[in-house]
Automatic annotation (TrEMBL):
Protein name: Polysaccharide lyase family 1 protein
Family named by the database record: Belongs to the polysaccharide lyase 1 family.
Species classification: Bacteria, Bacillati, Actinomycetota, Actinomycetes, Micromonosporales
MF terms (GO), sorted A to Z: lyase activity
Subcellular location: Secreted
Primary location class: secreted
Annotated signal peptide: 1-22
Domain of life of the organism encoding this protein: Bacteria
Comp. bias intervals (Low complexity): 53-66
SUPFAM superfamilies per the UniProt record, alphabetical: Pectin lyase-like
Length: 451
């Protein structure tokens, strides 16, 4: 059965029509030779009805790009050039563009190709050992750091942002060729609607200069800044068949300072600051802590009525929290497979302020440390719609579970059972839950598309 499902899925991907008026299937202007499949997929639009990003005008990315704006890139400098030429202004470049990533592109690569490290980006006034000595709560107290060392840390962050945050403009498709990796960088999609990102492995978007926040939680926390993909103030974004990982630099391997883990990673895919109409499909999230934050803060304001996101056929594998955590948005979460466990696991679905989560036919494979009631967390929300969930504990049999009832039996106050809406933007019928791991495991993530 796996062979027929895979073939049908690939065929559907290849034959999905690009929008009317798309440019001819020509090679890039730089003379690179691309396979027929790569050219087809580079110009593919999001299929009709495929989640929130299909609403209205849909999501076409750079499908109408001319040969001059169709590039193959192999370095940070080439990626910036393909996006418009100047990282500081590329976010405003609305010319349709298709960018194929070939091999590994490292955000810590200087303009001349020289590898950089955290010391190269540090302000002369910043040293971690001095920062730790100055702001130790036993010495400084539990108030926010201020003064010369904190100012030097902020300047260091600004240096890193200019280097590792790659700004993406509207009407852009970025697609990886087989084995493509984006390492140590953030794709920033800010005020840049109509963007497609596919078939890329994102690795280790590390923060060289995490901030100490002594009032974050009871004991304080180290907080990092850089997501692997950040979607802000944008609409019509399709994130498909990507893999997100910390590689050989997991947060679990970081030291502890002030009694708290020195966390150098933030989210995999955050949707914040009034962004909306996002579809994330067939992605693989593996071995990470924070995954997906939808909504910027608990403050009632511009996010209300926004943050409409669809998550379908994604694999969440060995990850710890925010799968997703939602504020305000109408978020459709269906046919995803969760493989979760370990002492550091926190929760899967975070029900935040005025959130409207609709979770249907998701499959959870759990180790013995996780109970059904642990999969939800109340971050100030009041209700979610949850149906069709199946759970397998350890090597035991899979069984249907009323996840909301399990949560309410173990927690107060209860969460209501009606999120107040019903999704209508779904390309295909929802899979029966027992089939989800059979399909999602082999097909989710990078290097599953025929490029």
């Amino acid at each position: 059965m796996r062979r027929s499902l895979t073939g049908a899925t690939v065929l559907a991907l290849l034959l999905s029509a690009a929008p009317a008026g798309a440019a001819p299937r020509s090679e890039p202007a730089d003379g690179e030779r691309l396979s027929w499949a790569a050219r087809q997929l580079g110009r593919q639009a999001l299929p009709e009805r495929d989640g929130w990003a299909a609403e209205g005008t849909g999501t076409t990315g750079g499908s109408t790009a001319t040969p001059e704006r169709t590039r193959v890139v192999r370095s940070r400098a080439e990626l910036v050039a393909a996006l418009g030429g100047d990282n500081a202004s590329n976010a405003a470049d609305a010319t349709p563009k298709i960018i194929y990533v070939d091999g590994a592109v490292d955000g810590f690569e200087g303009p001349d190709g020289t590898p950089l490290n955290c010391a190269d980006l540090a302000d002369p006034g910043y040293r971690l050992d001095a920062y730790l000595a100055a702001y130790d709560p036993a010495v400084w107290g539990r108030v926010a750091p201020t003064g010369a060392l904190e100012e030097a840390r902020a300047r260091s962050v600004a240096n890193q942002t200019r280097q590792t945050q790659i700004n993406v403009g509207p009407n852009t498709t970025i697609i990886g060729l087989r084995g493509a990796r984006l390492t140590g960088l953030t794709l920033m999609i800010d005020r840049a609607s109509n963007v497609i990102v596919r078939n890329l492995t994102f690795v280790d978007a590390r923060d060289c200069f995490p901030a100490w926040s002594p009032t974050d939680g009871e004991a304080g926390n180290w907080n990092s800044q850089y997501d692997q993909i950040s979607v802000r103030r944008s609409e019509h974004v399709w994130i498909d068949h990507n893999t997100f990982t910390d590689g050989d630099n997991p947060d679990s391997g970081q030291p502890t300072y002030f009694g708290r883990p020195y966390q150098v990673h933030d989210g995999s895919l955050d949707v914040t600051h009034t962004a909306s109409l996002v579809t994330a499909s067939w992605n693989r999230f593996t071995g990470r802590d924070k995954l997906m934050l939808i909504g910027s803060s608990n403050t009632v304001g511009p996010d209300v009525g926004r943050l409409k996101v669809t998550l379908h056929h994604n694999l969440f594998d060995g990850v710890l929290q925010r799968l997703p955590r939602v504020r305000f948005g109408q978020v459709d979460v269906y046919n995803n497979h969760y493989r979760l466990g370990g002492a550091d696991f926190q929760y899967a679905l975070g029900v935040g302020v005025q959130s409207a989560l609709y979770a249907q036919n998701n499959f959870f494979t759990l180790d013995a440390t996780i109970q059904d009631a642990d999969l939800l967390y109340d971050w100030g929300g009041t209700a979610l719609t949850e149906r069709g969930t199946w759970v397998r504990h350890g090597g035991g049999p899979a069984r249907p579970v009323d996840l909301l009832a399990a949560y309410n039996a173990a927690h107060e106050p209860d969460l209501g059972a009606d999120a107040g809406w019903t999704p209508t933007l779904r390309r295909d019928p929802v899979l029966p839950t027992p089939l989800v791991p059979l399909l999602v495991g082999p097909l989710a993530g990078a290097d599953r598309l025929p490029v």
